[in-house]
């Protein structure tokens, strides 16, 4: 689980969201309120679509609130890697917010799940950055 990435706050301009996605090398981030309750999720795909539309119509910088998914998939810290891997077979998120007591604790990426499965089942050594996710 990564817990060092700053989540996105409501009211954040989409250009700032894009900068955060690119700087952190993730495909999506949770959107939180002032108490770190997860209220949405924004992905690269959401940003691409919104920026295309706003640029075409010269509408200015959209806000994350306008494009985020308001019912994101979340997991608890107790969710096992195997359970999460099985969940990935049915669902499409590449990033899962980890929530405990209603508050964001971190995120788990698909890359981190792959790395954990490779280490445990195949004995594959993974780069340090993948193991940290």
UniProtKB/TrEMBL annotation:
Residues 1-59, 68-126 form the CBS domain. InterPro entries: CBS_bac, CBS_dom, CBS_dom_sf, Diverse_CBS-Domain. This is CBS domain-containing protein. PANTHER family: CBS DOMAIN-CONTAINING PROTEIN CBSX3, MITOCHONDRIAL, REGULATORY PROTEIN. SUPFAM superfamilies: CBS-domain pair (SSF54631). The lineage of its organism: Bacteria, Pseudomonadati, Pseudomonadota, Gammaproteobacteria, Pseudomonadales. It holds the Pfam family CBS. Keywords: CBS domain.
